[in-house]
Amino acid sequence: MEKHSHLKRGLVLLLLLVLVAGGLVFANRIMAGDAFTKEEAQHGLYGLWVYRDVQGLDWPAFWHDTQRQMIWPFLHSWILAVFFFIFGVGYVTARSLSLVIFFASLYLVYLISLKTSFKNGPRIGMIAVILGLTSPLMLRFASENMIEGFGALLFLAAAYTYTLCEEKKITLEYFILAFLISLSIFTNYIYAYIMIVAFLIVTLAKLGPILMEAMQLSRKGEKSAVRFVWWAYRKMIVLGFLLVLLGSWFSFSFSRKVLLLVQTVFKYSGGEQVVGLGQNLLYYPQAVIEYLSFSPWVGALLLVSLVVPFVTVRYHGTNRLYIYVWTALVLATVTLQAKLPQMIYIIIPFVFIIFAAVFSCLFENLLQKNKRALSFVLIIIIVPIFYSLPSAYAMFFPNIPAENMVQVLNYFEKTVPAGASMVIPFNMQRLNQEVAQFHFRERKGSLLTEPGILQSGLSTGGDYYLTVALDDGSYYQKDVSDDSLSRWNEWLLSRLMEGQVRLFSNRRFASAGLTAKIYQKTSL
């Protein structure tokens, strides 16, 4: 009874910790967040298109907007559109979906941890959830309108379902498993590639022991085919259902979709391009240390836990987790040309569970055999973490500028006369074509964002020309993607000197280190 009461108190404290951490993320990173980044805005526009199509009952447009999402397929945009219907269209709604996905992922982390050990599963789950709550990478994608969190949620759901499949001799779970795996192809090609290969390896790893058992039984003269046939039957269910769902996606625009899949997975398509065998091999181990935890020391321990699979002897449920993690690491290192920490985001929860299992196993052994050594190990683990506590604090209480790009965009929207056309042809991380289209979604009047204005002069029909002038130390200097902003400002200055445009309005955003300017065509 005492043990159960301790467990209940621990779960209550864990739930409170999750709620407090989630509340801080919502208040300080979502509600107080800046404008979308370019990629966030692209996902936001996809959801906005679907939302408007369904709102207007325009099913041909809905089908068109679904099918044209090929680099990032449509599933996230469908779910985002549902959120827009419930909570309204906006930055906060879109990013709140990621926070909900984050909460669901932590819940599955806890459930999978329970399956690793009947006795110590709750302890493993608590440690893994706390690691997730203090992971800079996980908190980032819990507060941004991105698809990484959804990819991780699908992998976790499929892994948990696979665990249920191995425990029960019924087929319904296998249909669910195939469905969850296939959903990855409608989310992100790279994640689908990793998931499908990982589950294929897990399945083949299960085949080895079955064949060995069959051989031993055959030597004794006993029938051995039943278990193998049952294993093959259930796997064929998964394979067949998976092929049907994948075929439904690739049945339209087959050539283009296959080409995009190959290019996304096997060719360089953004991110860091790492040169050299040594740098390739070290990239993701270094990413584990630097990005998975607020403390590099904890990150190093996470990496060490991935190369000590002795824990699988104590906690048999962890063997599949090692396969998931190492499959992703090997594929990301050897076959993916682009290198980014988020390429392995979908396995981060599994890394936390593995570390928690290793720690729990070590804790239990030392508690029984050498309590003095246990105290020494805990000191070694915990003391260095204190040096990184400011980093943990900054994750939940970030330094928020008093002014940001949302206020700049609001200034543009309120100052330019209603119905007038606006021109924004430059490319910054938080002020570009996609961000402008999402922010000005309800505004009447055309929005011209193509860079051709620099060549075509004033013949595009634009009435007002929007720009920003950045200070040398501006917070937004890091958002400058190319030279389009400087070329645009030079073009406007030359037209100002020629009398073709005049300065209509300007406003200083001192804390952001920029001045927003609105030029008007003089013929107006």
Automatic annotation (TrEMBL):
It comes from the Bacteria. Keywords: Cell membrane, Glycosyltransferase, Membrane, Transferase, Transmembrane, Transmembrane helix. It is a multi-pass membrane protein. The chain crosses the membrane at residues 79-112, 124-143, 149-165, 172-190, 236-254, 294-314, 321-338, 344-363, 375-396. Pfam families: PMT_2. Residues 73-203 form the Glycosyltransferase RgtA/B/C/D-like domain. It is found in: Cell membrane. Its main location: membrane. GO terms for cellular component: plasma membrane. InterPro entries: LipidA_mod_glycosyltrf_83, RgtA/B/C-like. One of its GO terms (biological process) is lipopolysaccharide biosynthetic process. GO terms for molecular function: pentosyltransferase activity. This is Glycosyltransferase RgtA/B/C/D-like domain-containing protein. It comes from candidate division WOR-1 bacterium RIFOXYC2_FULL_41_25.
